[in-house]
Every structure is written in C-alpha cells, then in structure tokens.
Amino acid sequence: MTDCMDAIYQRRSVRKFTSDPVDRQIIEKLIKDAQMAPSAGNLQARDFIVVTNTAVKKKLMEAALNQKFLVQAPVVIVFCANTPRSCRIYSARGELYSIQDASISAMVMMLAAHDMGLATCWVGAYSDVDVAEILMIPPNIRPVCMLALGYPADIPKTPERIDSSKLIHWESW
Q1: Ordered domains of the chain (ranges, CATH)
Q2: Would you call 152 helix, strand, or coil by DSSP?
Q3: Would you give the DSSP letter of residue 158?
Q4: Helices 24-34 and 93-115: angle between axes, nearest 10 degrees
Q5: Cβ contacts of residue 84 below 8 Å, gap of 6+?
Q6: Is 93 within 8 Å of 53 (Cβ atoms)?
Q7: In 23-162, where do the E strands start and end?
Q8: Are 81 and 98 contacting, i.e. CB atoms less than 8 angstroms apart?
Q9: Cβ–Cβ < 8 Å for 147, 76
Q10: Which residues lie below 8 Å from residue 138, measured CB to CB, with a gap of 6+?
Q11: Model's pTM, two decimal places?
Q12: What is the per-residue pLDDT across 108-137, written as a single tens digit (0 to 9) for each?
C-alpha cells in the first residue's frame, strides 16, 4: 500500500486524547493541508475556526449533545461553509458546493493529522444555531462539522464495514 492508502486504512475516529497541547504551527500546517482539497471552481468556499479555549470547548460540547471528548481534545476546529463565496458564481447551487468544499477539506485534514501522529474525530451532531451563536458565525456562513484534534490516548479497533458488493449499483439504483 502507498502511504496515502495506509493513512486511509489506519485512521480512526479517536475520542480519548492526551493532555499534550498541539503547537500552533502544526495547526496552521494542517489548515494549509486542508486548503489543498479540491473545491468547486477553486473558490475554496470554506473557513476554519480554531478553538483551544476550554470554556468555549465546553459550550461547543453542550451544543453537541454533551460529547465530552470535545473538551478533552486540545483543539476543536469548526469547518464552515462560506456560501456567499460559492453562490456569487454558482447561485443557489453554491450552497451545496460550499458544504462539499468544507467537508472534503475536513477529510484531507483528518488524513494529514493522522500522518503527523495526531488523531481526530468528526462531529456532526450539534445545534447549528448554538454553534453559530457561540462562535459568532455570520448568518450566511454554516458550520458543517467540528473536528476534535489532539494526540491519541487510545486508538480504537477497526470498525466493521458493510461489504462493498452490497453498496455498489451499476448504471442505476
């Protein structure tokens, strides 16, 4: 396997982190890596909110159905869809494209973090309204996901996967 495929197969959603801080330069490098993800029309309709403050992480945890690992993780990065950036070219379809842009950049960051010995966990279950209020996100920007980021204290086993033959549809559903 190539290094890329190793990362894809070895990466796990980690919910237990050490207390070791993640250096700001590493966070900035991960964001630079995430910016290499493809985007519709190369508009890069995504923005990143980096949260390290424990009080703010606690509020985000409460907005995210009390997923406690959000407070334990040294860093939480909120990926936002910058819909206006995409809609100026793609009109209403730009909303979907900006969500896709943010999502694919989050996946790139997850793989880059794994490559650096860091761990992540994608969080999608939260109140958009509460997260936007906590982080003062403008009304036309949408939080798409949060990534808990830090050094792993525990790495879970590989979860079972549905056999791909049950998921493939050739030519039509």
Answers
A1: 17-154 (3.40.109.10)
A2: strand
A3: P
A4: 130
A5: 140, 141
A6: no
A7: 46-51, 75-82, 119-123, 141-150
A8: yes
A9: yes
A10: none
A11: 0.95
A12: 999 999 999 999 999 999 999 999 999 999
